[in-house]
Amino acid sequence: MTRLAIQHNAVNLAQGFPDFPAPPEIKAAAQQAIAEEHNQYTITWGARNLRQAIADKYRRTYQLDLDPEREITVCCGSTEGMIAALLATTNPSEEVIVFEPYYENYGPDTWLCGAERRLVQLHPPDWRFDPDELRRAFNNKTKAIVVTNPHNPTGKVFSREELSLIAELCQEHDTLAITDEIYEHILYDGAVHVPLMALPGMRDRTILVNSLSKTFSVTGWRVGWVLAAPDLADSIRKVHDFLTVNAAAPLQQAGVLALSQNESFYRDLSDHYRQRRDVLVSVLNETGFRCFDPRGAYYVMADISGFGFPDDIAFARHLLENVGVAAVPGSSFFEDPRNGHHLIRFCFCKKYETLEGASQRLRDHAAQLSS
Ligand code: PLP
Prior knowledge:
Helix content: 40-55%
Radius of gyration: 21 Å
Strand order of the largest sheet: 2-8-7-6-5-3-4
Strand content: 15-25%
Shape: globular
Distance between the termini: 29 Å
Structural class: alpha/beta
CATH topology of the largest domain: Aspartate Aminotransferase, domain 2
Bound molecules: pyridoxal-5'-phosphate
CATH class of the largest domain: Alpha Beta
Mean pLDDT: 97
CATH architecture of the largest domain: 3-Layer(aba) Sandwich
Largest sheet: 7 strands, mixed
Number of helices: 12
């Protein structure tokens, strides 16, 4: 969609990357690290000071104690973290539970491992799952459950109660949880992020994947990390070593500064995105869409049934070519595309002027439809 958005000169509300600058002090730290010759390979599982900064951050924020020497692996974004975690822990034909709709990468991730995906539905409007359906998904072939929290594409934030049930089932079936927490600091309306790893009994059976990408608006830097108990980390480090060796050395150094931000940085981040969410959601609701209000992350899923198009692909194409706004067809997030034919996903990690540009085009479109 990004490629098509450029081709059609459309406002790109498809791919989730900010179009505003990254924080200047973090950029300066990267430049300084290059000047100071952090330009060679690092220890494959990450520069020692970055692993220490990650450990400090989790202790400060969640009272989680992690050993930087044995439990933290720095990798090339959470994209690599997720595939390294899955390759290190699953065998062909074992099952991995994934909530649907799901972030597209988990499809190829599980295919590459030869693992079977077992889907559990999240139901609109608040994207709750049916506890019995989840219970039924666990069986003696289940190796892991992937939990994206906050969730892309829906903006769901899993409640402590929901996480407790997941924790209970993981322990009952001796299963791993792999959590993708890259939107942990983008929360609205009083939502609270609880890492599954912090729940009783989950410390050593959770693999937590995260990165600098979203919190620090540096999606192109490709610096992420995986937290896991030493036996799991040992396998993950081996996979990581042969996939990529190490994340970019100077950017790891900038990560040390990034992770030392105080709580006000994260509060401002949520505030900044909440205002953008409110702009986009209100314009979408006003112009014929029906939005499912996100409580976290920076996407909004919208129902397009009111427009009378045959499916989401036809509608996304119309929006791109005739309205000048790019969004992601909802079917991309479902195994069976028919389940997403009435949905489209917009992102709002954009400058106000970008959102205003899209708003104007959507309003003009709504006016044309009603005339
Ligand atoms: N996980 C989720 C849920 C995402 O939405 C994205 C990017 O959109 C990623 C992972 C990719 O993250 P990274 O840049 O850390 O590889």
